[in-house]
Amino acid sequence: MPRPGRNTYSDQKPPYSYIALTAMAISASREKMLPLSDIYKFIMDKFPFYRQNTQRWQNSLRHNLSFNDCFIKIPRRPDRPGKGSYWALHPYAGDMFENGSFLRRRKRFKLHQQRQRSLGMLAAQEDVNSLKGGLELGPYLHDNDRVRLQQLAASAATSGYLPFGHSPPQPVRPPYKQAFTIDNIIGSHDKACLPSDTDGLLSPPTRLPVSPLPGFASQFGPHNIPHSLMLSYRALRPNDAELISSLASTYGQVTGHNVMSAIDYFNSIRSLQQSQASLPLPVKPTALTTMNFINGQDVLARSQQSYLENHSVSADRVKPKPALGHSVDSLLKPTKDSFEPKIDDQEKVTDKNDTFANSIEIDVGS
DNA sequence: GATTGTTTATGGCCCG
DNA sequence: CGGGCCATAAACAATC
């Protein structure tokens, strides 16, 4: 007899769409991505309703995965063989659900054809947000890095583009799709600084749901770089590449995540592209996917190690940081005017620090 | 052969 | 009533 799920709705159909259920499963996973079979497992474990008629709903769920742009496919690493790809949430899909409740979607997450010029705007906004994130690392940074970050922040603030520290109103998502080549992302730095085109024709800046720091690859697992982070890097000047690497490494140590700077990452990819014909290409052009292991080497580890050798970060400056994030249970809790769930008494919601309305970052053991 | 992924089609519900 | 969102069915291809 299966034990009752902790968020059991007994045998009633839960008030969540397949998109919401899938997003929950992915968000609850350690790496923010899951193979199809694990998405099934999560749903069946949490919601007894879905232990029946599996053929029916699983077909629907697969349809949703393919059909909706909010889900992206990530190829398996060679050292993790198995059937099917991993599924992740699109980096910009993090704010699909109001208050992270999974009950109501703001609107369909849909990619559009893109006006090239929007990118500069978006990149700049991203850059500002990223700098803010970077500054939060202040206590852990080398003096030089901290100073340089503050300079960048000041520059952003005085550019007239967006007052630093100002939080834009509800985001209006600009179209942002573009040809997804390595050169598009890391090329032409000189053209990619803070924007001059403020003629009002562009969409307002977007507040991004994720993107803790500039040029980082961390949020969606070790081999999926959010599109936003690449834009962020693109908006920075090339001589800040070292700063980015430094931040990536520090951020990785502070959070315990696998973090690699985008520049190291892309340089690896580009050199591999030149030497090898068969790279795993992104399945959708919205998030770059690749392998962690290139030519038998762990690129991530190599990058971090080389940084450490060059910078000798003293370990005592890297202090553990309390984990951010919601429990799955708190996210599953419906709003007061909706379907009333049955939650076991001992499964109290422990998360009181509910400040990340747009950020779905869940850290739950699997 | 089973699983995974893509695509098309259809109909219900809700909202402006 | 039309459009958006969603659920479901089903045909079919690709992959392990």
TrEMBL record:
PROSITE patterns: FORK_HEAD_1, FORK_HEAD_2, FORK_HEAD_3. Keywords: DNA-binding, Nucleus, Transcription, Transcription regulation. InterPro entries: Fork_head_dom, FOX_domain-containing, FOXB1_B2_FH, TF_fork_head_CS_1, TF_fork_head_CS_2, WH-like_DNA-bd_sf, WH_DNA-bd_sf. Residues 314-339 are annotated as: Disordered. Residues 13-107 bind DNA. It comes from Mya arenaria. Residues 13-107 form the Fork-head domain. It is found in: Nucleus. This is FOXB1-like protein.
